[in-house]
Design a protein that fits this description.
Keywords: Membrane, Transmembrane, Transmembrane helix. This protein has about 350 residues and is of the alpha/beta class. It has helices at about 10-15, 40-50, 50-55, 85-95, 105-110, 130-140, 180-195, 195-205, 210-220, 230-240, 250-285, 330-340, and strands at about 30-35, 80-85, 100, 120, 125, 175, 225, 230, 295, 300-305, 310-315, 320.
Length: about 350
Amino acid sequence: MFNGTFTLWSEPSIQAINPNCQLPNQTIIVVARQASSGTTSIFTSALAAFDGRWKATKGTFSVGVDNITYQPIKWDANVVRYFGPTNRDVAGLIRSIRYTVGFLSVGEAQVELVDYAALGNMNNRFILPTASSLLEAINSKVHEATLTPDLVNAQLPNAYPLSSYTYFAFYKTQTRDCTLAMELVRYIQWLITDPAAKNDAESVGFSTLSVGMGSRVVKEVLEHVTCKGQLVMDMVQADVEEVTVDKSWLVPVAVTVPVFLLVVGLMAVYIIFQRLKLNTMINMDDWNIPIEDIVFYYDEKMQLASVSGKSRFLRQKSVRSLKSIGEISEGPELLSQILQWPG
């Protein structure tokens, strides 16, 4: 597609490896990056690894077009018809022009909602770009002498064939701020070993180093970084503060918690006992109280009585029992009302 060998999506060789979809009989429109780009460098290095003719004629390059003439430098102008200044522009061209193909990093393709393909590796397996397929590519070169091997077209069966490292460079001999040197070493250690770093990388289509390559970085790089004549790793270890945990709260908690649990347990037992007792009383009719044992309470009444021809208020007793109900003038009426109550 990128050297003009295939010009139609319906080419038999393309259709043969996509048996589950009917490809259109339309011209393949190729887009690429305009400015100098690491993405272009990685992609063209992969093309050179895949095809000897590309390696001999084009090779690896990073610049798309000349800044003055705006003409492609190594791309074939008859093949690559559109150029985007940035990866986001390339994504916009792919989304807006039908039958277009281009190249982006996985994270950018995911953000820009651009579909991407599984690529055939040297083991004739079609592999999607994932963290695991990238780690497979890293592990395929973990024993090489250099820490910057080319990961494209890796030999392991599940390796994604278009993989690459992202690099950053720093001086192993630091001469200015040792605090910054220590933080740099700490950051690289975190980037290699911390699960949070792994999750962050995978969320944007990257991966952290494999265990084997991470160990090499520690032994061959971090353990040799110096600042003002001292090993920074030793400075980092010496700077680790021992966290003293205040355990004075353990004794009161150890005493209070069992007591609290005991009180709660006793309350629960008491409630259960009372509940069982109530159920037993109901079942045995112990709640039926003889009516003659009931004491009736009613409000005090002020009655007007005539004594010696003069009117005055007499205060009656406020409590009467059924045994003396005859002494109350309204006793029979009260008893009649009581007997009408349910139960």
